[in-house]
Amino acid sequence: EEGKTMLKYVASTANDQSIVMGRTLYANQKCISNQVRRSGKAVYINQIRNNNQVHLWAMDRWAVDEERDGAFLVLPLKSDGDKVVGVVGLDTLLSHSPTQFLPHEITFIQNVVRELSSGFAYLDARHKFQRTLISLLEVIPRKESAVLAASCYVVEPEPHI
Question: Which of 34, 49, 96, 97 might form a disulfide with 69, Cβ 3.0–4.6 angstroms?
């Protein structure tokens, strides 16, 4: 199963779309993103140029400048059960001067990814609930011939803001 596990790029900034969208990292590739997927722990690389585990799809785009370097932060997207369901990677390669993420920036990004994970978990739970509900509504008329139609209402509590 591990050999089939992969990470597929499904979102990016506009300037990287043509380079990364639809690309795939396979489980057997040695790279930071797979390390994060396996361990569930964030990884911060402050100098990409000196790290051979950072997989760059368009190295020629910034390799012409020998002084150019950047930082790379990869964070796990986790489900409610702490299972890693994806990763979020951010880099500073297109910055005009070599730059690193500051501690408060890393904290902010970690919080954003944590909330994004919560959002994905919420959507996943709703999707599973809907599938279960649809299955139930399909089974009732088959099991009880007297039931010709069924209506279902789902009520959620209003969040306190």
Answer: 49
